[in-house]
Design a protein that fits this description.
Length: about 400
């Protein structure tokens, strides 16, 4: 067998072994969504791993906007936006995003992943440097690699290392610093004031991925700047539109000139079709709902505090962060898979997260809570996670052996 065939074969065998042990929780076909619950295999499970932090999936105003757009514009567009695929709806969505973000303009891509890849590779090239936090999202890493720029990764949240790397670069070199606002697998918040200082000292451009801070941080969910009481300190604000905003797509908000540049130079904008109109309309309506229903932001923030406290009281070591992402670290893969199974048996759905989504030996459950959960449901998730933790992590003698489980 050739090396490619061998690679596929080995991987498929590992997946088969996990399935044989009844520990495979990826790609679960959700049949229905009802508030904070999902139906899988005819069974209703409480979702403890949603990205929809504000619980806006199914919101009547957003549903209505998507239906209207479907009736008015249809399911697709006439191709790429630069040519015949643009609509007034796409323009209005970008205006809505820039108004929300407090920037001059914005551009929308058909996914958050594409936005990161497209923008980073359009901004920097072989003569520049791009500096990343070690735990930045994969789409940022891929954008950096594609760009061909000198790619520097600094240890997680290490601003001293960031300053060292920036000052070691030639003054005339183009420098782009990219960080996540909230780190998607750990739930911690970047120290924005210190990163901003570091960038200013070296005249570096700053891009922040707000996919997990939008709707979550700040008194009205306006994101990382408002969390720190800052304004206009980020050059490029990026976010996915598939988390707090219950749609699809990704955007960059920034200066008018930056957005003009990206709309003509970034390849995923120039060479890929526009976001489907129903998705654009849903995203636009969701920004309105977010502003009109600020209680959702308060709710998710309060649920996050409650759940963290409950897990800590149950003996699980969790960090104190102001976000609804709570990693429960098992270390090895097998306990993470078994924790998912134990939770599933308790009626809660939280798939395991293993390498390469997280560094090897830091496998985990990424437990999340949303504004759609009731107080009782938050308590149920807490009790289930504590119960699963005790079963899997504190009573290893009753653990089932899983000989064929995949290794990171
Ligand atoms: C931090 C971060 N950036 C970007 C993305 C990509 O967003 P999308 O799912 O819209 O492609 C994700 C998605 O998980 C993410 O967590």
């Amino acid at each position: 067998m050739d090396p490619i065939g061998r690679r596929i074969d080995e991987f498929a065998n590992r997946v088969r072994a996990v399935k044989a042990d009844d520990l495979y929780f990826y790609l679960q076909p959700v049949e229905a969504i009802d508030g904070a619950s999902v139906t899988i295999g005819g069974r209703s499970l409480l979702l403890g791993s949603s990205y929809s932090y504000l619980g806006l999936i199914g919101h009547p105003v957003i549903q209505h906007a998507a239906r209207d757009a479907l009736n008015h514009y249809g399911t697709g567009t006439h191709g790429v936006r630069l040519l015949a695929g643009n609509t007034d709806l796409h323009d209005r969505l970008e205006q809505r995003i820039s108004a929300f973000s407090g920037t001059e303009a914005a551009v929308v891509y058909s996914s958050g992943y594409l936005a990161n890849v497209a923008v980073i590779s359009a901004l920097v090239g072989r003569t520049d440097a791009v500096i990343c936090d070690k735990l930045n999202h994969a789409s940022i890493v891929d954008g950096c690699l594609l760009s061909g720029a000198k790619f520097i990764r600094v240890p997680h949240s290490d601003t001293a290392a960031l300053i060292r790397e920036l000052t070691a670069l030639p003054a005339a070199m183009g420098k782009l610093v990219v960080v996540d606002g909230v780190f998607s697998m750990d739930g911690d918040v970047i120290n924005l004031p210190r990163v901003v200082d570091a960038c200013r000292q070296s005249q570096a451009t700053l891009m922040v991925d707000e996919s997990h801070s939008l709707g979550v941080l700040g008194p009205e969910g306006r994101g990382i700047e408002s969390h720190f009481g800052l304004q206009d300190v980020i050059d490029l604000k990026m976010s996915s539109l598939s988390k707090s905003i219950p749609s699809a797509g990704g955007y960059i908000a920034g200066s008018e000139d930056l957005i003009t540049y990206l709309k003509h130079v970034s390849r995923a904008f120039v060479f890929s079709a526009a976001l489907p109109p129903p998705s654009a309309a849903a995203a636009m309506a969701a920004f309105d709902v977010m502003e009109r229903e600020p209680d959702r932001v308060r709710r998710v923030q309060s649920h996050a505090r409650t759940l963290r406290a409950r897990l800590r009281d149950g003996g699980i070591p969790v960090r104190e962060d102001p976000t609804p992402i709570i990693p429960v670290i098992t270390g090895d893969d097998v306990p993470a898979l078994r924790m998912s199974r134990a939770l599933y048996d308790r009626g809660v759905f939280v798939p395991p997260i293993v390498s390469p989504a997280v560094p090897p030996k830091t496998s985990r459950l990424r437990v999340t809570v949303t504004a759609a959960h009731s107080d009782d449901e938050v308590a149920q998730i807490g009790d289930a996670v504590v119960g699963a933790w005790r079963e899997v992590m504190l009573e290893p003698t009753v653990a089932r052996a899983v000989p064929g489980a995949p290794r990171a």
